Amino acid sequence: MVPGAGPQPLGSPDSRDRPDLPRAADTSDTLVEAAEQAGSLEDLAGLLRAMRRRHTRQSRDSTLTYREMAQRTGWSRSAIAEYFTARTLPPADRFDALLTVLGAAPVELRALADARDRVEEVRRRVVPQNQDTPSRAPARPAAPVTRASPQSGTAPRRLPPDTGLFTGRQEELARLLELAERTLAADSPGTAGAPGFANSPGAAAISVINGMGGVGKTALAVHVAHWLAASFPDGQLFVDLCGFSQERPPREVHDVLAELLRALGVPPGQIPDQAEARAALYRERLAGTRTLVVLDDAGDEAHVLPLLPADAGCLVLVTSRRRLTALDDAEPVPLDVLPRDEAVALLHRCARARPDTTADARWGQVAELCGRLPLALVIAGALLRTGGRAWDLGRLLDRLSPERAERALAGYTDHTRSLSTVFDLSYQSLSSDEQLLFRRLGLLPGTEVDAYAAAALLDADVESADRLIECLADHSLLTGSSPGRYRRHDLLSAYARALGRTSDAEPDRERARDRLLDYYIHVAERSSVLITRRPRPALPGPTPAYAPDLRDDEAARRWLSAEHANLEAAFADADARAADHYAVALAAGLAEFLFAEGPWSRALTIHRAAAAAATRLANPAVGPAGPTAHPAFDPTAHGVALTNLVRAQYLTGDYAAAGGTLAEALSVFRQGGDRLGEAAALTELGRVRYGIGDYAGAAASQQTALELFRQVGNQLGEANALNDLGHVRHLTGDFRAAEEAHKRALEIYRQIPSRLGEAAALTDLGHARYARGDALGATEALEQALEIYRHTGNRLGEANVVHYLGQVRSLIGDHRRAAQAQEQALDAFRQIGSRLGEAAALTELGRVRSTTGDHAGAMDAQEQALEIYREIGSRANEAWALNHYAATTAATGDRPLALALYQQALAMNRALNQPDDEAASLEGIAEHHLSAHNRAEGTAHLHLALEIYQRLGMQADAGRIQARLASIDQGERCLLRLDD
Fold first, then answer.
1. Residue 632 pLDDT
2. From CA 739, how far away is CA 729, in angstroms rounded?
3. Cβ 564 vs Cβ 590: under 8 Å
4. DSSP 3-state assignment of 833?
5. Rounded Cα–Cα distance for residues 852 and 858 (Å)
6. Do the beta carbons of residue 35 and residue 20 sit within 8 Å?
7. First and final CA of the chain: distance in angstroms?
8. Of 495-509, 624-638, 785-799, which gets the smallest average pLDDT?
9. To the nearest whole number, what is the mean pLDDT of the chain?
10. DSSP letter at 814?
11. C-alpha to C-alpha distance for 785 and 796, rounded to whole angstroms
12. Element of type H or E holding 330
């Protein structure tokens, strides 16, 4: 069994599809050709996945899931998953049955069956079939038939001892064992050089295990070498090349070859003097053998090339802190730090801790402080294991959390091994330019860097910075995280900061940090302008020498998505250092991304701190003549900080605080004569006002904002104000006027163009059509909006549209899909942090549940919604939700309580001028009276509701009332006839 494939979601596409197996396997010839080339378990699994894709295309249906295949075959889903992910070779009968399910033709069945048998034969030589091995542990290979042995007659066994502490690394083990499997298969008659094998005829298989110092490269190489030893009976050689060693200089290849030749049985007197001759004899001795060679701690490619065998039966494992990119035939196996659970397991094992202590959360804290780096974990475990009663987890946590930054790595030593020493060796191997960049990376507030950020730190051009980053990555001092981006390890960062403090002048470090922050601020501001649907007053600031060319909103959104963690870390650092100018500017650059993606609680924290910083900058001192503003601080930045705080406040439901902040923002913009900023603040004021039910005030604010936007010629602001006015018209029941406002806004958004604005107008237009009972028109508008939001990655917009589509599904009676939509929207709103959205989805979810008879579930959801609305002071939404809660209460049979709730909702809706919700309250009161056989009161309330619905143009609701009145009249006539 090949380890490390890992569990996958049932029925999900397999991310490990191999490029050497054609994806377009639509013809039998293509599939048969691929089957004839298959030689490994992964090849066979790739064929199964290719057939699964073909089955999907040919059937024009969704992908055949593991569950469906399990139902058709009677096997477990986990067994099928193992066949498709190369964890297990399917038995012959099961393989044939699986091919039938996947629609294999007879000619394909034969070729695929032959491929399966060929893979089984290869694996039988490597993996014993009768050994019971754990599912996550590599099976120890069985000894194959021995070929020619070294001429001395005694095969060398030079591997160092394996460690009992080895933990995890299942994926890497699987890759190395697969390489060994391919090596043995390629060395077999009839298979050498076949497509799909990594090594060509006559070439040894090579793997380079690379990673930062202390990540466990040697431990992995030695561990896997012991597992494979029996499959390479002609010898196992190990050489420490000392490429990065404190005690010894790098080994000379000339001397290493002599050592290897002696190990292969060559008498000292017969070892040539010249290195070239020694290398030739070394290759000659290994020819025709199956020998495993471990070259540990290589400094560079030149350290390795003369030591490579030339024969296909040999396997070479190289470890290095560098990537050794010039070894063209080598298969790279990069090592990163351990996952958290494996890091904790290694620490626990190294400490020889009792099993009953594993639940202590401090193990995880220590593992994180060690950066999940194996060497640091081993040192920490050794301190616990050998320290007796003087050491426990508490003291270890104190040791690893020093107060002084210059002693950041002081705790990572057991007086024999030292993490600082390990890092020193890597640092000393760098050029002076590489060393400077490494130290500058200690100034990074976040964890990732690209060439532009590095250029800002170095005050260099992007091309030079990119080359230096690549050099650091080659030395495993950075790890690639995505195309063009690299991640640094926390402990290496601490080491870099300590080096910077001792090696660089503080003014130089400050200038480098300022250049980086100026770069972040400039590009974040440009990106925000591209993705926003709100006018943004321009904030002044220096322009970096180099910045990415962001041509459209998609490029801007990608940049913000990649950099937002760095931007947040930069803001936190600036705020902690009281660098108020940078804190204000960074918060402004983050605003659009945070409001679109959430969580809004984080947005509130950031913008509250930014507003406080802006206020300090605007009023740093109070003298005899009153407040004195900072001469370099632009009032626009103050107003923008306050406006962003307003948005965060009302989005999280704090309308009272938002109102106070808005008054301050308007004052700042008006004093500075910034009419664009004033108009933007008035737009936010309108939203706050209709959030608390002040529709007249909301309309007045939006109308004033509309006029200001038109005066300054800002079409985006004009469209926003129009769309918001439409929303107010909707809330007051003027649905026709609402539609007209949304349509006019939609036209402007498309002219600008603004895709997000277009989506917002379509969303509100769909909601207005839904209110009039136009399910078809509502669905059309909402689905257009949903497509835009998904294309642009706007989570909040998508959640809103899904919520409204759920309402439309309820309108047409599709309650199952309505509930699914509201549950999906609820999850999204909670992730984003939208309490208003959460409450709205809960209200509608309760409504759907009540309709389907789940009254208990309905009341639970609606009570949660009402609690949220009351907490945030949204009386308009509370009155709307109260109607639905009253309806559910009536459905449970508690009509007196339902009547009281309807009457409370009626009073609130009349006071708030919400006529459509007022009509819903009247309708509920009518049904109460009718159920109590009070026909006169019931029909009177129905007529009041009907008049409102007809006035508002809510045709579906009016039709429902008319039908209800007609049924009452018909029932009355029937009773009269019975009396006659």
1. 58
2. 9
3. yes
4. coil
5. 10
6. no
7. 88
8. 624-638
9. 82
10. -
11. 12
12. strand 330-334
Between the CA atoms of 500, 504, 508 and 509, what dihedral angle is there, to the nearest 10 degrees? 10
Q: How far apart are CA 30 and CA 475, in angstroms?
A: 42
SS3 content of the chain, % helix, strand, coil (to 5): 65, 5, 30
CB 402 within 8 A of CB 410: yes
Question: 838 with 826: CB under 8 angstroms?
Answer: yes
Q: Which of 4-18, 495-509, 699-713, 867-881 has the lowest mean pLDDT?
A: 4-18
Which residues does residue 626 pair with via DSSP β-bridges, in sequence order? 623
> What's the count of helices (H) and strands (E) in the chain, helices before strands?
40, 10
Q: Which residues touch 98 (CB under 8 Å, ≥6 apart)?
A: 48, 69, 73, 80, 83, 90
**Tokens standing for residue 841:** 């989805």
How many CA atoms within 13 Å lie on the side-chain side of 515?
22
Q: Three-class SS of residue 943?
A: helix
CA-to-CA dists, residue 70 to 10, 82, 101, 340, 738, angstroms: 11, 12, 10, 33, 53
Which amino acid is located at 621 in the chain?
A: A
* Average pLDDT, integer, range 634-651: 90
The secondary structure element, H or E, covering residue 891 is helix 875-891
- Strand-pairing partners, residue 205, are 315
| For residue 599, cis peptide bond before it (omega within 30 degrees of 0) | yes
pTM of the predicted model, to two decimals?
Answer: 0.63
Strand-pair category, 448-449 with 485-487 = antiparallel
Give the tokens for residue 295. 């070259």
Residue in this structure with the two tokens 């600036």, named with its chain if needed:
574
> Residue 386: its pLDDT value, please?
75
- Contact indicator for 817, 805 with CB cutoff of 8 Å: no
- Tens-place pLDDT, residues 904-915: 999 998 888 888
Cβ burial of 742 (10 Å; 0-12, 13-18, 19+) is buried
Instruction: Read off the pLDDT band of 383 (50, 70, 90).
Output: confident
Which residues contact residue 138 at a Cβ distance below 8 angstroms, ignoring those fewer than 6 apart? 2, 3, 173, 174, 177, 224, 227
Please write the tens of the pLDDT for every residue from 353-380.
877 777 788 888 888 888 888 888 888 8
Highest mean pLDDT among 345-349, 454-458, 548-552, 618-622: 454-458
- CA 777, 780, 784, 790 torsion-angle sign: positive
Exposure string (b/e) for 649-666, b if CB count within 10 Å is 16 or more? bbbbbbbebbbebbebbb
Does an H or E element contain 206, and which? Answer: strand 205-210
224 close to 348: Cβ distance less than 8 angstroms: no
Helix (H) or strand (E) holding 604: helix 600-618
Q: How many Cα atoms occupy the beta-carbon half-sphere of 465 within 13 Å?
A: 22
- Provide the β-strand partners of residue 263: none
Beta-strand pair 485-487/479-482: antiparallel
